Amino acid sequence: MGMMAALAAAPMVPPALFAQGAAPPKRRSSAVTACPVPAVEKRPAADGGSLYARGNGQLSGGPAPILFLHGGPGGTHLGMVGALPLADARGVILYDQLDCGLSDRPGKRANWTVDRFVSEIDAVRRAFNLERFHLSGTSWGGTLAMEYAARQPAGLESLILLSPLVSTRAWLADAEQWILGLPPEMQAAITEARRTGNYDAETFQQADLFYARRHLSRERLSPLHLACQGRRDPLFNLDLYLHMWGPSEFVVTGTLGDYDGEHLLPRINVPTLFVGGEYDEARPQTLKAFARQVPGARYQMVAGSGHWVENDRPAEHQRVLREWLAGRA
Fold first, then answer.
1. Which tops the pLDDT comparison, 8 or 15?
2. How much is the pLDDT for 221?
3. Phi, psi at residue 128, to the nearest 5°?
4. CA–CA distance from 235 to each of 99, 275, 290 (Å)?
5. At residue 213, what are phi and psi to the nearest 5 degrees?
6. CATH number for the domain harbouring residue 88
């Protein structure tokens, strides 16, 4: 849930991620050689500090722009650069949450709450004069997008939830199902680390990376992410991730341990699309069940992808978003 954003924000995906088992499939050649330059950069004033935000495409006077929320907690907008090609059809806005990436980093744990992070969405709306907009959140960003949409704000046209964290209980239940498919020695290492609390043990770290290789990102960085990853080198905020989540995608010791937003789903009153990978940490059957709780919502599974759909299957990610947005105001 957060490590996805960590991989997106890091200079490169850790080589150890691909040391276990067969190498990931080779990507087709790509003409992507440079990261799209922001047409607009802003510093929205939010509760606790200023944010970094960037915009591309037609941000006013045309179809409603789409705002993307990155994962984490602790990730950066670099995890969302796969959305930038959409700027040929409408405005695309990315931003770094407080204490993340290029935004201010006051480091005050009092700021690290769901409600305060949700409040940043309106700060970005004000900065870009977004009377109408579409909202998309991935993983932890999906949590924030779901929370915001459930408040039924005026001007929200539609919602896209990519592999969202809807409840920690459901997230961990999915993880347990995936863990049952790991090699026996790795299951044993996970059990031992949970017993002792020693998550620094080499055997646990190897199991954790194997899990990430299967269920977070099944591919090396996409050409677009590779082109963008060095831009100013914003770093993943590990302290924020550990405080709110914990030492692993499937070990929660932080403040989100008892998070449950499932009751919010029936309150969402805009067209909603759930998207997830075939091998996603948020399993297809779980996301499908969540989608059934949102009136009129759809669910779409991306074959062959792990949690980080826009990196694992960039062409399919683009197709799904474009089809959803086509014909929408």
1. 8
2. 85
3. -105, 10
4. 10, 26, 32
5. -65, -35
6. 3.40.50.1820
- For residue 108, the enclosing domain spans 3-325
pLDDT, tens digit, 9 for 90 and up, residues 280-313 = 999 999 999 999 999 999 999 999 999 999 999 9
Nearest CA among 132, 149, 151 for reference residue 59: 132
Q: What total number of domains does the chain contain?
A: 1
Q: What percent of the chain has pLDDT over 70?
A: 88
| Residue 235: CA count within 13 A, CB half-sphere | 5
Please confirm, yes or no, whether 280 is among the known catalytic residues. Answer: yes
Which of 208, 280, 305, 312 is flagged as catalytic? 280
Q: Is 225 a catalytic residue?
A: no
∠271-170-175 over CA atoms, to 5°? 120
User: 12 pLDDT exceeds 70?
Assistant: no
Residue 200 appears among annotated catalytic residues: no
- Beta strand residue intervals within the chain, DSSP E: 40-42, 45-46, 49-50, 52-56, 66-69, 92-96, 133-138, 156-162, 272-277, 298-302
| The one catalytic residue among 99, 307, 312, 317 | 307
Tens digits of per-residue pLDDT, 82-132? 999 999 999 999 999 999 999 999 999 999 999 999 999 999 999 999 999
End-to-end CA distance of the chain: give it in Å, rounded: 31
Give yes or no for a contact between 85 and 34, defined as CB atoms under 8 angstroms apart.
no
Residue 125 in tokens: 């709306």
Beta-carbon contacts of residue 54 (< 8 Å; ≥ 6 apart): 38, 40, 41, 42, 77, 93, 94, 95
Peptide bond into 73 cis (omega under 30): yes
**How much is the mean pLDDT over the chain?**
90
Q: Which of 103, 136, 139, 217 is catalytic?
A: 139
Rounded to whole angstroms, how far apart are CA atoms 85 and 258? 37
* Cβ(256)–Cβ(250) below 8 Å: no
